[in-house]
Design brief:
Shape: flat
Distance between the termini: 89 Å
Number of domains: 3
Strand content: 5-15%
Helix content: 40-55%
Order of helices and strands: HEEHHEEEEHEHEHHHHH
Structural class: alpha/beta
Length: 321
């Protein structure tokens, strides 16, 4: 798909933005089991209640006991038997659910999605960024796009010493929003200091501010089109390889809409149908106008014919009078 977009000048790949979102997994929290012995959540709470002196725990006893327990949803202890790749995570709306993490690399010059990866939902942004960046570089090389990735635009979640130092070593300029961490100490860490200060200097410049606003507009838009409007905020397949196929189809559809918009002026089938309907309505209106003109012309010809058929005598007598 990138090769087709590149032939139409819709991929440059020089400046990309990386952003991630969580997708609700096709797995319920009530079905999770312990990794060590396979006990269900209710069975685990029953054992805790019996250990505390409650012989026949009720649902209220389990709820009360579970309410005061810390780290009750650790991914180190729990898994889902039907989808082991799903992880317990907090969704965008604040709910806790089993989820997957989808990460996009978007071309900020053309808005095309260069790469998309599916990773565990509990993997941090500073760790997942490397896989997505490598995927984007490989796709650009396969599409024979020269230059490769030169600038990477990130939000605050990706800002870390290791990420900025790693991008500098790869010869890429970072534009990462920096969270407020207070006074930093750089003893025996000059490489990270130089990378952080260079990133801070770039972000304060005019181009850094433009790219920051562009990232919020373009990168977030790709998530909205693929998962909100595209109806994939909850996936209906299991395991990462199947989720990745489904997400890749969404990204390909997004890029196809971009190409349609460039070639036809519309980016969705509904928009194209609207254009066709408008064209048909225009043709129908033109047909009505042409019929009205024909009727008017026929009436004019008939009037002229009647005038020609009138006798000349009376006209001369009237003129003489």
């Amino acid at each position: 798909m990138l090769g087709v977009l590149a032939r139409h000048g819709l991929v440059e790949g020089r400046t990309i933005a990386i952003d991630a979102t969580t997708l609700e997994a096709n797995a319920a929290m009530r079905s999770i089991v312990r990794k060590d012995d396979g006990r269900t959540y209710d069975a685990f709470l029953d054992d805790l209640a019996k250990a505390s002196g409650i012989e026949t725990p009720t649902r209220e006893n389990r709820a009360k006991l579970d309410k005061t327990r810390k780290k009750k949803g650790s991914n180190d202890d729990w898994t889902h038997p039907g989808d082991p790749d799903a992880r317990i995570a907090k969704m965008k709306d604040g709910r806790t659910h089993l989820a997957h993490k989808a990460e996009h690399a978007t071309d900020l010059d053309t808005t095309a999605i260069v790469a998309v990866t599916v990773q565990p939902a509990d993997r941090g942004d500073t760790t997942s960024v490397y896989e997505t960046l490598a995927e984007a570089s490989d796709h650009l090389a396969e599409a024979h796009i020269e230059g490769g990735v030169q600038e990477v635009v990130l939000d605050k979640g990706y800002h870390s010493n290791d990420v900025l130092s790693g991008l500098t070593e790869l010869g890429m300029r970072s534009y990462a929003s920096e969270p407020d961490r207070g006074r930093r100490r750089w003893k025996d860490n000059e490489q990270a200091r130089d990378a952080v200060y260079a990133n801070r200097r770039r972000m304060k410049g005019a181009r850094g501010q433009r790219l920051r606003k562009r990232r919020g507009e373009i990168a977030e838009r790709s998530h909205a089109h693929c998962y909100e409007t595209g109806g994939l905020r909850r996936v209906h397949v299991r395991r990462h390889e199947n989720v990745a196929k489904r997400v890749l189809l969404q990204a390909a559809t997004y890029n196809l809409a971009l190409m349609m918009r460039a070639l036809l002026g519309v980016g969705t089938p509904k928009g194209l149908a609207g254009r066709l309907a408008a064209a048909l309505r225009g043709l129908a209106a033109l047909d009505r106008v042409s019929h009205a003109l024909l009727r008017l012309l026929a009436a004019l010809v008939e009037s002229i014919a009647r005038l020609i058929e009138l006798p000349r005598g009376p006209r001369v007598r009237l003129a003489a009078a």
